[in-house]
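Weekly modeling sync, notes
Attendees: S.R. (lead), two postdocs, one rotation student

Agenda item 3: backlog of single-chain predictions. S.R. asked that every request posted to the team notebook include the full sequence so nobody has to chase files. The rotation student volunteered to paste the first one in as an example of the format we agreed on. Action items at the bottom.

Example entry:
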Amino acid sequence: MGTQTVIDQPRFRAYGRRHLDRLPEINRLSVEQRVALKAVSSVLPFRVNDYVLRELIDWDDIPNDPIFQLTFPQAGMLERADLLRLEDMVVRGEEGESFQRLVHDIRLRMNPNPAGQKLLNVPRVDGERVLGCQHKYRETVLFFPVQGQTCHAYCTYCFRWPQFVGEKDLRFAARNTDDLVQYLSEHDEVTDVLITGGDPMVMSSAVLRRTIEPLLTPSLDHIRSIRIGTKSLSFWPYRFLTDSDADDLLLLFEDVRSRGRRLAFMAHFSHSRELETKAVTMAIRRIRGAGAVVRCQAPLIRHVNDKAEIWAEMWRRQVALGAVPYYQFVERDTGPKQYFQVPLARAFRIFNGAYSEVSGLARSVRGPSMSATPGKVLVDGVATIRGEKVFVLKMIQARDPEWVNQVFFAKFDSQAAWIDDLRPAFGEHQFFFDPYIRAMYEGRWQPEWAQTDDDSEELTA
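Predicted structure, as returned to the notebook:
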């Protein structure tokens, strides 16, 4: 297990919307900003802790500070008319039934479950949908343990915001691993299980062990990798240092390795500042010492990290700490996307600018990548072909493995920010995957690996 030097032992304390007036830092905001914060945080989740407040945010640079933008909801995240209505009700203290109806209506208009998550990704056991799992790509199943459906702090751009707003119909959550284990026992094509949320690192080590242990049995020896998706290294690195069960957690990681499985720690870093503290350096050292590989990913976000130098510095720091730059994502088409999204053309320039400034060790990163309905679509270049300016796109992960690594082209559009904004190049009427996705929504097609005995042998696009 990784060595640990003497470090302060802070106590974790989280603050939500109801604590806003008690945070002394909030006094730095104007009355108008505070009202907007209360209005927007009634729709989108808000949670911070002392580590974020004291060690990450530069309160002399408010509201432009990137970590403040990352964690505190902003007025521009809602449509103007919705914001004004909510602000008026907040000021008048009218947060009853009509207020909650308005909040619910706004959430439903924000595409809470993008890319067919509810309709296309939910597997079945004995004909029943397993709502705590997703299976989109052949090799990987996502699992959402109910105990991990919160975070040490919330990112304002999080595409999983519906997990945190208290609306059960929008959430994925599983109370135990029974259905997951049964499903995996019937699907030996699966090699990786990603435990996600929320953040599994809010779970106690004992609960996390009860989640992971069933996946390590000899009967599931086709599961070669356990992945943990987490923002804890950014928002509460003391989870691995001084929390009461930190040592037990590292022992669990060592157990996964000793039983012949790989443990991949999918760390979410949004800005280089999150990698600068002594605590995060020590936490990464301990995790790696316990046999886990730390892979780093984040979306490209306006107001937070939309500069090439930020990404270059972030990748350099990750490599210096022994972590692996993995993905730069495009902000998904959900939640306050209009506030955060960056046009694909600019995203590609930012990625290339950063990529060209780092050594080969950091060039393990892939991006900008859209996690869209058909799969992960990489913006691989901008070119002029036969006189037409186009985006060069590549499918780097896909519902149908036959699509992986397939290159295709879209008309160049300087304002397009998502795949739905793009049109096929060279006079084509649709992208190659479009008829299959339509047929999938209509129940007429599944990729071969996902077909069951109940599926027709004549499923076509």
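Discussion: group reviewed the output briefly. The chain has a mean pLDDT of 94.
Action items: rotation student to repeat for the remaining queue; S.R. to check formatting next week.
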